[in-house]
Amino acid sequence: MKRAWLGLLTLFCTPLMLQASTQETTPAPQSETVQADVTELFGDSAWFGRYHPHFGYRYQAGDTIGRIGGLSSFDGFLPLLESYDSNSLLFLDARLLIDSDSTNLGSNLGLGARRYLPEWERTLGAYLYYDTRNAGYANFSQVSGGAELIGDFWEGRLNWYVPTGTRRKQWGTGTSGVGNYYFSGHYLYGGTFTRFYQAAMTGVDMEAGRKIFTGFNTDVRAFAGWYHFQAQGSQQAWGWKSRIESRINDQVALNLSVQNDRVFDTTVNFSVSFQWPSITGLKNGPRMDLTARDRLGESPERLRAIVVDNQELNSPSNTLIRNPATGNPYYFMHVAPGGNSDGSYEDPYETLTKAFNDARTQAGDVIVFDHRGTAETGDFTLAPDTQVISSGPAQYLNTQFGQQLLPGSNTGLMPQIYGSFTMDDRTLLSGFRINTTDEALSVSADGASQVTIINNIITNDGNSGIYLINSQEIFIRNNTLQDVFDDAIVVAKGSGEIAITDNTVKSETSEFDDAILVSVNNDAQINIDRNTITSQVQGSDNGIHVTTTAGDITTRIRDNTITGVDFSLAGGIKYQGNSTGTAHTTISGNTIFNDDGPLAGSGVFNGIRVSYLNGSATTDIIDNKIPRNPRTGTLARTSDHRRHHNQYQPEHALESRRLRNLRLWLHRRHRAGHQSRHFPHEQYLRAQPV
Predict the structure, then answer these.
(1) Which residues, listed in sequence order, are joined to residue 515 by a DSSP beta bridge?
(2) Which of 101, 231, 351, 391 has the smallest CB count inside 10 Å?
(3) pLDDT mean values, one per 10 residues, the chain (690 residues)
(4) How far apart are CA 160 and CA 142, in angstroms?
(5) Candidates 2.40.160.160, 3.40.1280.10, 3.40.50.40, 2.40.420.20; correct CATH number of 2-9+53-182+191-311?
(6) 652 and 613 Cβ atoms separated by less than 8 Å
């Protein structure tokens, strides 16, 4: 009989090295009489001896090696042949697997044998399985097996897994914006082509552990081990694993495991299983301190789901980059030193003038990309759908893959243009130093829509820096305007969305009129945010000046810094509404500072001045700081989080004004036509007729 069992074990797997016991136990005598188990199910049938069938459910939560998400299993264990002394058992182990999506099925069907060796006080076992798994995009099968050595305190096992049939399947492809971008001719290419695979992995795992606690109806064991899996197209997954198992009443088992390798990274898995009538098939047997002989009738510990690697194979896609708004490929006209050809990337034009003389540029729907850092003189008119950019700042392009950084940009080289630019519909200007003389406008447009002006440095000694009239959908961002003779940034008779943000306006040698002047004559949404305005020359007018003549207007003037030296500014922020529509105005988070007192004969400095001549309006003035020199001013502050409704009488009454968290330095003095007041305590509003 023993020879037959040893031959069967050799057929399944080579045995593990025997491990020493830490405690002696007395083997059960061969003639032991055992009370029939689970008689409610099987009675005293001669088919079963000491070990009986048991059924169970196990749920594994979390990811583990080669599997993402939870896994449910419905288990069945059937003893097939038991020796007369109950020291040997041949069994069938089967289960149905369902993943956490409840759509992908798997199965295990295994045949195993165990033999208790009284002279060694060990149970030696081996098993062979056929496994299947629907991994979502591919169906896999494998043959797996293992060997185990179980003692009263120590145990260890080795499992192996070999896929059969289909081992790897491509289930899809995709293109993304990740990867390198490059110019070729007049076009831009880039992106990544990805092939998606699922691959079943060949591997082996091993663990060893021991009992660390025995209590009332409870056994706790700790394990540590390693594993290795590999598949075509995957890195080799060498990893370590650890596990803690707790058995309760021989019917409930809890497992917590942690694994790590470079393919699947660190995964944590928790499982709870219920077996009925019992885990070991000994319903009336021991509830605690199980011996090696008691465990012949339990299911082997192994990876139940086939290990699958979800693979992505990336390669350059060489995809033609397109404008997502039109679906057309972007066409580039390149300008670079030494070029004298057709404007392609390999043979660029030498000057911007030559690029603009090209019929393709004049037709529009083109990007003129200037890679130089040199100077040029000329006046340039953009055709519709034209972008003129330099390599100086980081230049981003909207593509079918989202916003992408243009190769060759962000070099810091900005061409110097002595002249001007005229914008048209859907045009963009970015990355130039523009110096304009002879009373010409530096950047202008008349009747254009969707105009974007960003990342430029503009100087103009005879007129405005940016002047857009009768235009709509305007975006002016991150420009520097210095020593501009007239109004620095002007949007006249505008409408639609108007955004003037993150610009710097400086007057060092010549005064400007208004730093930012916006007038609208139709429905508009105006955002003037985070601009920095500095005037050091007397004669400048307002920092920000907004006027309205028609339409429903929403205006937000936020987080700007306006500074005047020697009372060089007449006012900080001025808003005048003369529209019969509805106005919603928010002026918040601004800092307005005018150093030193006024010179003789100068007008009163207005930090923030809001007036409405027509229509209905609501204005919020919140969290602004408006200091003056403490020698001539008095600090007043509204109480925090208080709202003040104040009424005054311009030509048409202001419906409501709300002031919150407003810091004001107010100048107190007497002059003709003006009455100075002292405002005690913490809250007041000084109203001056319009």
Answers:
(1) none
(2) 101
(3) 39 33 36 40 61 94 95 96 94 96 91 96 98 96 98 97 96 90 96 95 98 87 98 96 92 95 96 88 61 91 97 92 94 91 93 96 96 96 97 96 94 96 98 93 97 97 93 98 90 97 84 87 97 77 90 96 68 87 93 60 61 86 73 29 29 36 35 32 31
(4) 10
(5) 2.40.160.160
(6) yes
